[in-house]
Amino acid sequence: MLALRRCRSLFNNLRTVSVASGSIVTPANYGQERTNSASANTNFFIREALAELEYPGKLQRLLLTPEREVLVELVITKDNGEIETFNAYRVQHSNSRGPYKGGLRYHPQVDLDDIRSLASLMTWKTAVMDIPFGGAKGGVAVDPKTLSERELEKLTRKLVQALKDVVGPTADIPAPDMNTSAQEMAWFFDEYSKFSGFSPAVVTGKPVNLHGSHGREAATGRGTVFATRELLRATGAGQIADKTFVIQGFGNVGAWAAEIFQDMGGKVLAVSDAFGAIYNEQGLNVKGLRKHMAEGKPLKEFPEGEAIDPKTILSTPCDVLVPAAIGNVIDAATAELIDAKYVVEAANGPTTPEGDAVLRKRGITVLPDIYTNGGGVTVSFFEWVQNLQNFRWEEDEVNKRLDRVMTESFGHIWEIAQQKKLPLRTAAFVKALQSVTRAHLHRGFD
Ligand SMILES: NC(=O)C1=CN([C@@H]2O[C@H](COP(=O)(O)OP(=O)(O)OC[C@H]3O[C@@H](n4cnc5c(N)ncnc54)[C@H](O)[C@@H]3O)[C@@H](O)[C@H]2O)C=CC1
Ligand SMILES: O=C(O)CCC(=O)C(=O)O
User: Fold this and answer.
1) What is the number of the ligand closest to the CA of 184?
2) Do 97 and 178 belong together in one domain?
3) Stretch 154-159: mean pLDDT, rounded?
């Protein structure tokens, strides 16, 4: 009781430290430290919210800095007998609110700075969604298309061997991200279980027939749709059925979001992937496009649409633009070209600080990544709970619970934004920073 009182008074004191104490980075300092690195961009947005909260410098450092960074080299023997090495990373940003949690990305351009930024975003995302996890992210610098399935399996198992001492069902729980799917999670679970015994809760996003959860595969896209619905409702802009959508990225997140927007009556005008883009002013037949791609055919060759230059996807006129691919695509230049009323960030880190400033200036409302794509980790949390209970929920129950979490989280962000007159991104970071800070202070530092 005494300890709790001490924490509370510490927290109250922290809240009253003023900008004049000199330890706060004020907006005036931002320009000097801005670089184009992913983690500098993420820290820019965090500092913008910290300026609202007026926390002292030492606490800011704690919130900004990852707790652990693991760098490993993975060596595999390829099918042709040659050996190849790959750099791999796991950054554990914060576990103040619960075990580290976040996806694994396989991408040739992955580096430590990217993973650092994505791990930090996970800390704030789990706090915004109010699920009992911290934040982490992992990545392997590999183009998975250059490896056979057997080689990918070896690589994933090598990753587990390298990380087995820092991951675990109550320590750090990976999940899918770009270019990883239920299959990689199944290999991860199997390899980890060789060292630690049967441990399905060590990863989420597993196949449904191997301790995965119904609804996890579609969850990030479905959550994006629920998030958009709440934004349209709150801003009095109408409903999904009245709106047109353009989506960059047609992988797990983009394709599911497109399909569910269409199921709810929305018109998906254009989508793109890394190799092309397709447009139909009457609205694309999304299910047909997914079937076309499942047959191994290129997106841009879908016969029920017109192939367009993928560089024009972000400037294609629509009501709601959904970046659902890679980071940093909306910069100062592309932001000037956007012809949408809303940008709904299904991807992680799609907007640079410069791009964000342009969107604000142009009156385009941005629904931030740390909320919009939080449906994925929310259903990962449901999967983890089901694994720990050795129990299975029906898909309908998963989707209803996801809807509730997305709706409630939106309400909290919207309220902060209205009260403090902040953009939704800053409001989301304010909510997350308060929640993580409270956890740190209640737990103590010794
Ligand atoms: N899978 C998940 O549950 C979650 C994913 N995210 C984020 O959503 C985004 C997409 O992830 P996934 O759909 O899982 O990945 P994915 O690997 O399934 O799909 C990625 C899509 O983006 C396209 N793409 C890649 N580079 C591109 C480029 N330069 N221009 C246009 N399109 C490009 C790919 O061709 C593919 O269509 C990422 O930013 C990821 O971090 C966020 C939360 C959860
Ligand atoms: O499902 C998860 O645990 C995390 C997914 C992820 O990597 C993300 O939300 O960016």
Assistant:
1) 1
2) yes
3) 98
